[in-house]
Amino acid sequence: MAAGSLSGDEQAVSEMASVITLVAIAFVIVFAIGANVLFFEADTDGPDTTISFQYFEELSALQVSHDGGEGIRAGDLLIQGPQREVTWAEIDRGMDDSSMVESGDAIRLGDAGAYGETVGENDRIVVLYANVSAETTVLAQWNGTRG
């Protein structure tokens, strides 16, 4: 055997080290992607808030309440029904667009006031967060008394 040449055993160790290195790199990449998917939440555009609804059949009206979570500017909350779309500020005359809607605040949709239409038991009402710096996000939806 000439000096400087490698035997078959020495080459196999070198190839095995390369395979182990490649497998380790692949494992690290898969682990990093998996950890990102499992442990990091997606950044949503809308605020984290809870909206609830209560229907009053005898009045053909719907109460929309902020039940907790982040406060939202009244001008950024859109109430969308079958015939109308208004902001929370337009319905609540005590607020302007920059007023904050906080937990415990409520408005009533009905034929009186800015909404101007009765709410039927089969109507669909959607509460949207619409801010110029974010996309419009659905915060809550009422699908009538049928669910």
TrEMBL record:
Pfam families: Pilin_N. It comes from the Archaea. Residues 11-80 form the Archaeal Type IV pilin N-terminal domain. The keyword Membrane applies. InterPro entries: Pilin_N_archaeal. Keywords: Membrane, Transmembrane, Transmembrane helix. The keyword Transmembrane helix applies. The chain crosses the membrane at residues 16-39. This is Archaeal Type IV pilin N-terminal domain-containing protein. It comes from Halapricum salinum. The lineage of its organism: Archaea, Methanobacteriati, Methanobacteriota, Stenosarchaea group, Halobacteria.
